[in-house]
Give the backbone structure.
Amino acid sequence: MTIRERILAVYRAQTPDVVPFMLDLSHWFYHKHGLPWDLSRAYEEPEYALIDCHKRLGVGFYLPNLGAFYMADYGDEVDAEVIKGSRGGLPEITWRLTTPRGSIERKRVWEERSYSWAISAWGVETEKDLRVLGDALASRAYHLRWERYQAWADAVGDHGVVYMPAGYSAMGQLLHYWMGVSRVMYAVRDWPQMMHEVVDQINENNLRLIDLLAASPAEVILMGDNFSSDIQPPHFFAEWSRSYYAEAIRRLHGAGKAVAVHIDGKLRGALRMMREVEADCADAVTPAPMGDLSPRECRREAGPDFILSGGVSPDLWLSGAEVGAFKSAVMAWLDLQPFGPRLIANAGDQVPPGATEERIELMRDLVEQYGRY
């Protein structure tokens, strides 16, 4: 079977010949080759060099991080700007939204050491700011660019399945873009009614995008708020996000799509809550030592039919970790095979900058040798 056939077999509850092996190498690849990556724009063309790297290393491809498969235009009363500047001599990007109620802006600054864009300023501090955000995001109209998706799918071919990212829910926007964790936690206590109104307002707009994705050529839609059960535990998720996810997944399933949810933090409680809204797969699952569950504990919480995609903690990819510990982590993940074929060998989130190429090849070889059904 090809890598593509193996991945789709898992989603169809069929047994592949070998556990599918796929990785998100984008962050590692950019760092390794000193390539800039610009969060202020999306890539209209496939990243051919990145895709070719996956093929050369025998790694399945699935995540087009900066791919632009649809466009979002804001309403006539909203002015959306992206401004490039600097802070302390480092590149900084500002996103500004202006509505009749006022303006808000958020900023991210480049960090060379982690090869990433760190938050340098949040955008929402007051109730008025929150209203501005709600009005702006609720005005979005979406335009399909499926020819771009098809170009990625054609470039990847049988070497993987190109997931279709759906972006953050309303709570994901607040937690990761506009407010941050601590401000959100204060806001849900101090402004509960307004928070509910704005969250509902944004999620209603998100469902318009979900309906378009349901008509896309993609087989797998990727949702998620970078879930971690210490940030969005089940009781919090039930109040603020559950209804949106359940409805989005219901619509996508109705169109024959599978849904993966990105869970790259604490797992206890998060796996169960995503299984209960009937998602098909937990992506980026990070077990111990950085995660809070062992592989077997992940399977116990997920149940037999929920796909677990992940398996190797980010710290184990680095040269400072013993190779034996890396091998043990891969083998512990593959030991889930007897529980059924709903399993994908992957990284716990991305392969990190500084990972050794030898470990990518080692995991590939271990899966090929010991991941056979």
